[in-house]
Amino acid sequence: MSELVFFSGTMDCGKSTLALQIEHNRSARGLQGMIFTRNDRAGQGKLSSRLGLVTDAVEAPDAFDFYAYLVDRLSSGLRCDYVIADEAQFFTPAQIDQLARVVDDLELDVFAFGITTDFRSKLFPGSQRLVELADRVEVLQVEALCWCGARATHNARTVGGRMVVEGAQVVVGDVNGYDEDVVGYEVLCRRHHRRRMTAASARAAVLSPDVLPVDQPVTPGP
Ligand SMILES: Nc1ncnc2c1ncn2[C@@H]1O[C@H](COP(=O)(O)OP(=O)(O)O)[C@@H](O)[C@H]1O
Ligand SMILES: Cc1cn([C@H]2C[C@H](O)[C@@H](COP(=O)(O)O)O2)c(=O)[nH]c1=O
């Protein structure tokens, strides 16, 4: 029975690496998949991992119809045995419905990879639809860590290393961006996401004689 599987986690937890491994293992056994993505950091039509691997993919903007594309492909005699969809948080809910239809009507496995929540810890619409429709949601086993050593569960957006909470939901970027005026991201545990405490601000707090140590209880925020 074909499945829609949503592999989810924070940024930098190995989702794209796993996508490339699934692709490698299946193509090594003679299967032929289609790889889709949206807004990869490596550029349009690429699926890239921080481990240095990159492969070509079909870019899927809002107007792209996964179901129609695959029906077209199969009816013109081309092959597709499974589907990989990276950066799935950026797909529209309608596109996630198309992927579910690919599983049910075309009987193809669909492996979708993406972050569930944005920098404000709100669900991306595409990820919400995946949670609603997927046969399975798999949380990646390699834990990304907060600077405090706890499991990172949240994505913070940073500018100059400081967490920001205003801005567009979609801003393509990478972790470890500490430059002033450059949007970057940092993964944090919930406690430090709620307190807006990134590695840089924790370091600054420790160095300042005016503030309490980071892990002392503080008045809860709004
Ligand atoms: N230099 C490195 N050596 C070993 N592992 C690394 C290195 N750089 C990145 N990684 C691994 O790659 C992971 C990020 O993989 P990637 O597939 O790009 O993540 P995601 O798609 O979830 O954002 C990191 O969590 C880490 O486990
Ligand atoms: C939290 C958050 C992230 N993004 C962007 C930043 C990256 O380009 C991707 C995530 O890619 P990864 O392979 O999982 O690291 O999403 C965004 O646009 N908005 C956000 O709130």
TrEMBL record:
<dbReference type="GO" id="GO:0071897">
    <property type="term" value="P:DNA biosynthetic process"/>
</dbReference>
<keyword id="KW-0237">DNA synthesis</keyword>
<dbReference type="GO" id="GO:0005829">
    <property type="term" value="C:cytosol"/>
</dbReference>
<keyword id="KW-0547">Nucleotide-binding</keyword>
<keyword id="KW-0418">Kinase</keyword>
<keyword id="KW-0067">ATP-binding</keyword>
<dbReference type="Pfam" id="PF00265">
    <property type="entry name" value="TK"/>
</dbReference>
<protein>
    <recommendedName>
        <fullName>Thymidine kinase</fullName>
        <ecNumber>2.7.1.21</ecNumber>
    </recommendedName>
</protein>
<dbReference type="InterPro" id="IPR027417">
    <property type="entry name" value="P-loop_NTPase"/>
</dbReference>
<dbReference type="GO" id="GO:0004797">
    <property type="term" value="F:thymidine kinase activity"/>
</dbReference>
<keyword id="KW-0808">Transferase</keyword>
<feature type="binding site">
    <location>
        <position position="185"/>
    </location>
    <ligand>
        <name>substrate</name>
    </ligand>
</feature>
<dbReference type="InterPro" id="IPR001267">
    <property type="entry name" value="Thymidine_kinase"/>
</dbReference>
<comment type="similarity">
    <text>Belongs to the thymidine kinase family.</text>
</comment>
<feature type="binding site">
    <location>
        <begin position="170"/>
        <end position="173"/>
    </location>
    <ligand>
        <name>substrate</name>
    </ligand>
</feature>
<dbReference type="GO" id="GO:0046104">
    <property type="term" value="P:thymidine metabolic process"/>
</dbReference>
<dbReference type="GO" id="GO:0005524">
    <property type="term" value="F:ATP binding"/>
</dbReference>
<feature type="active site" description="Proton acceptor">
    <location>
        <position position="87"/>
    </location>
</feature>
